[in-house]
Write a structure and sequence with these properties.
It contains 23 helices and no strands. By secondary structure, the chain is mainly α.
Length: 376
């Protein structure tokens, strides 16, 4: 059984506050909180001694107290807060582990906390949704990566979306999200357009995706890969013919090519789908009015709801193009999508791929309707 704190110990601490005395009494106090068989009166004495030690002992002694008491559920809250606000060597064990700190305490500590202290809180065995949101709102990449990799941290759907928006291209954050035990479908939809092929495979295999979403994910990867291979204009015609012959030249991929500014692929696709020679298809697509586009569109038998989008895409392509500067492809797509989706509320500058996917699902996918605007 642990040694009790006696009046003689307290007197010695006051009369001879050497580090050795402090360390001995610190060990006795810590053991009294961990062991059974102590009365409430004895623990009250231990708490009073502990409060005195937190304020008056050497840093090495406070470090020892912090280590010994970090898992103690009956640690007085004021003592836990004093240790948590101490120098890093004392505070870290309490910030990482102490159950004596509640959500209100942790959120207060986070205000103005250093990155290291935020990371310590993000590592806690359990982190509530409220504290997780506070960490995401004020946290760096390192803090958020630590948080999303902590399965004991609860993150609600809104906070997960904040993470995706704040770190759209960070592979360590993405990997942490993908490898969480569960994710809302809405978050998966945002992630799949940004992550690596390896992470996409992990999502499909390890998360219970609805069959439609899993199929859509696979198709998106194929479409991006297909269009990215079409940079050699001499090979585009042959590639498009092969896709058409295999039934893979879908309305969705035609839409993606038009909205991405892949003019050569788009023109070849329209020629293949109508059976027209390339020169004739180009004449119709470049007709100054809209009759040529309407005629080739109807001949291709594309979903009617796709027409307003393709009309806008062709119009933007005539007015502008890539400017040759870094990021010109994304700027071009942004101009395109802002014209097409003027009534869509969630346009975000870092989410081109998500918007292309939504357009594809609503207009170009199987069973696309004849609607002319996206549902809110």
């Amino acid at each position: 059984m642990a040694e009790r704190i006696t009046p003689a110990d307290v007197a010695e601490l006051m009369a001879n506050p050497s580090v050795e005395t402090q360390q001995r009494i610190a060990a006795q106090v810590a053991s009294m909180f961990a062991a059974e068989g102590f009365s409430e009166a004895e623990r009250r004495v231990a708490k009073d001694v502990l409060r005195a030690m937190v304020n008056r002992t050497a840093e090495t002694v406070r470090q020892a107290l912090s280590q010994h008491l970090r898992l103690t559920p009956i640690l007085p809250r004021d003592v836990a807060l004093a240790l948590a606000r101490d120098v890093d060597s004392v505070a870290m064990p309490i910030l990482e582990s102490s159950p004596a700190l509640n959500d209100e305490d942790l959120i207060e500590i986070l205000r103005g906390a250093s990155e290291d202290r935020q990371v310590a809180i993000a590592k806690r065995p359990t982190v509530s949704e409220t504290v997780s949101e506070a960490l995401v709102d004020g946290g760096s990449q390192r803090v958020v990566t630590t948080l999303v990799n902590n399965e004991g941290a609860r993150l609600d759907e809104q906070t997960l979306h904040k993470v995706v928006r704040a770190f759209p291209d960070d592979p360590s954050v993405q990997e942490g999200l993908v490898k969480r035990a569960s994710l809302p479908v809405s978050v998966i939809e945002r992630l799949i357009t940004r992550i690596s092929d390896t992470m996409r495979e992990y999502l499909v295999v390890n998360h219970a995706l609805p069959p439609e979403l899993a199929g859509e994910l696979i198709e998106q990867v194929r479409e991006r890969a297909t269009i990215s291979m079409s940079g050699d204009c001499l090979a585009v015609d042959e590639m498009v013919r092969q896709l058409h012959a295999k039934g893979r030249l879908t309305p969705s991929i035609v839409l993606r090519a038009a909205c991405s500014g892949d003019t050569a692929f788009f023109e070849a696709a329209m020629a293949a789908m109508t059976g027209l020679p390339m020169a004739n298809a180009q004449i119709l697509l470049n007709d100054a009015g809209t009759k040529g586009l309407r005629a080739i569109f109807q001949k291709a038998k594309l979903p009617e709801g796709l027409y307003p989008i393709l009309e806008t895409a062709v119009g933007v392509a005539r007015e502008t193009g890539y400017d040759g500067e870094p990021g010109d492809r994304e700027r071009y797509q942004r101009r395109m999508l802002e014209r097409v989706l003027t009534d869509l509320e969630d346009i975000e500058s870092d989410n081109i791929e998500h918007l292309l996917s939504r357009l594809g699902r609503h207009y170009g996918g199987p069973g696309a309707s004849a609607q002319s605007s996206l549902p809110r």
